[in-house]
Design brief:
With about 525 residues, this protein is mostly helical. It has 27 helices and 2 strands. The structure holds fe (ii) ion (2 copies).
Length: about 525
Amino acid sequence: MAAPVARRADFLMALAYATDLATGHSRDFALRSCVLAMRIADVARLDEQTRRNVYHQALLRYIGCNADTHLLAAAFGDEIALRRDLQRIDIGNKPELAEVLVRAITRTFADAPPAEIARAVERGMAEAMQVSVPILSGHCEVAQRIAERIGLSDEIRENLGQLYERWDGKGLPRGLLGNAVKLPVRLVTLAQDAIALMEAHGFETMKEMIARRAGGAYEPELADLFLKHAEQLFEGLDGPVDRETILALEPIPHAEFDETACEEAYLALADMIDMRMPHTFGHSRAVAALAGAAGARMGLPVSDIRAARWAAYTHDIGELAIPVSTWMRAGTLTERETDAARLHPYHGERALAALGGEGKAVAALVLRHHERLDGSGYHRYAKAQDLSPAARILAAAETFQTAREARPYRAALSDAAAAAKLRSAARDGKFCPDAVEAVLACAGQPARRETAERLAGLTPREIEVLRLIAAGHTAKEAARLLDIAPKTADNHIQNLYSKIGVTTRAAAALYALERGLVQQQISAA
Ligand SMILES: [Fe+2]
Ligand SMILES: [Fe+2]
């Protein structure tokens, strides 16, 4: 078996971060719920197998919730605000549920005349049950499919299929009753509600509400046990949760991913991100195909091509923080919405920060995917020297692909028109002309001019050597790091010096710096 390159739990955390954004939960909500649920599991002395199921249910409960988001948005407007409101009520309580739905519809039609609002409320309430059962069933099935793709067990998948079921049979879509709802499901629902209620109402009121709902939403014995130990269970749970805590909580054996499994996990993330509305379906896969092919065409090292592809799969993960209803409104964004939208690369980098090893390079690319060479991009206004060849390729591939897809507020451009637009932006100094030509060639567009297909004709190995010596490593060290003979490293250095037209390490370092081959830590603002 190939060597492990990542803990599976790291991907679970990235998924958890993404679903927290999409569902309007607070920062680290799923992670905190995982800690709380595992503590409850300890107090209840649950066996190892059940603890494993609880761990995954807490982190992944909402991974299917992106399916059909456009339908939810069409019926109720800002679906993230709606989801936030729903977390705080007892969904089995019809008047409470009706109040939240009416509030959501009223918010959407805030500027309309009263008669129109009344009509919208009437229509929305009539549709509520009609749309909710298929939507919630879709969430369950999508969650199960994503879980399958990242190699989770049948039991974990079965639990994910019950995420909206309740003890009293008033859950959806199947209305399972009592013990027919699996124990990990019952436990995690209680833990997540407790956190959401505490955030909304404080610790004491949360306890009262949990006690009131015992026998309804929650199994009475489980609610009693929780209430008896509530202080101890919540200790230190009010701040962020770090990666090590979640890694340490994973029941043994710890699952690890080799490169193939990582590729599939990144792909699963891509599909999960893109399924929020029909307009973005397949977007990340298409960007990845273009970026990967263009990287190979430009002769980048294999690790750079892989990072570009994985970054392309996940580049818009931060867009989950923006309600789909905002995109679907088909008008211009308000200033506040624009600010929120421009922060999606930041959220993306944060979501992927947990991924150790190569995840860092992927996160660095995601952070930069809307940056432009002349500093006119967002959100950091990075410039050329901060944009590696892989970052330049990703930006060009993303822009080209987006232009040829339709959005609610504009039609799709033809491939030729999208290519012309990208070339014009490259002439304006925003995109790297070599990266643009490589992407367009890979998209089957006829070449417009002779372009250097490789960076000064450097081979992938020479780029790796250049990067190391520019970072201050000696030829000997570079040889050791790349596992090649010192003599071979020397040859590479002589060859690359002549290709880029320099004779000193300092000038080679400057060349590398100017082309984004050496980068500062992404955490440095
Ligand atoms: Fe995108
Ligand atoms: Fe984006």
